[in-house]
Every structure is written in structure tokens, then in C-alpha cells.
Amino acid sequence: QVQLVESGGGWVQAGDSLTLSCAASGRIFSINPMGWYRQAPGKQRELVAAITNGGSTKYGDSVKGRFTISRDNAKNTMYLQMNSLKPEDTAVYYCNYLTFWGKGTLVTVSS
User: Fold this and answer.
1) Which residues of 1-111 form beta strands (DSSP E)?
2) In Å, what is the CA distance from 51 to each residue of 29, 41, 55, 92?
3) pLDDT tens digits, one per residue of 14-24
């Protein structure tokens, strides 16, 4: 079993920065990729960013150049550094590992 716990969400103003963390526990193998997804009210869940064990990354088009994903395999922790936040970044952000999901952390960006 795998447990994923997100933290770091909150309320910020447009242009601010925020860093999310995802602490993973259980049967975690660093060889597998991990990712961040988000779901805004009334919208489908979408990929924000993903990272492989080797550090290769992939970003959603709307966050390229503003968000940075990273992971610390020794700590089984993944991060999402979010800069230049926009109101449209408002969503619940979820951590993903294989078929496992965290409960999410809410990010609210006011204009």
C-alpha cells in the first residue's frame, strides 16, 4: 500500500510563489515516475507536471516556465515550486504515484 500526503497549499495573490510537497510512504520505488495533477472547480483533472526517477520532467502547457517539479528519492518526497501564480492556477493539487492519489491540497490565487 502507498500513502501520499500533500502539503503547502494556501491562499496567495497573483504573482506570488508557493511550494507544494508530497510525502510518500509505503511500497515506494524510486524507479517509478511521480506527478502533480490539479482539478479546478467544474473542470477535469489535468497533468501539471511529472518527473521520472532520473529527473526527466514533463509539464502542462499552462505552467511551463513557471512551475518546477523535483523529487528527493532518499526522502520519498516530491515538490512543486510554483512561481508567478495566476488566478487560473486555483485548484486542488494532487500527488500521484502509479495508481495512488493523495487527498489533495487547495491552492487559491486571488487577482
Assistant:
1) 2-7, 10-13, 18-26, 34-39, 46-51, 57-59, 67-72, 77-82, 91-97, 100-101, 105-110
2) 13, 25, 6, 19
3) 999 999 999 99
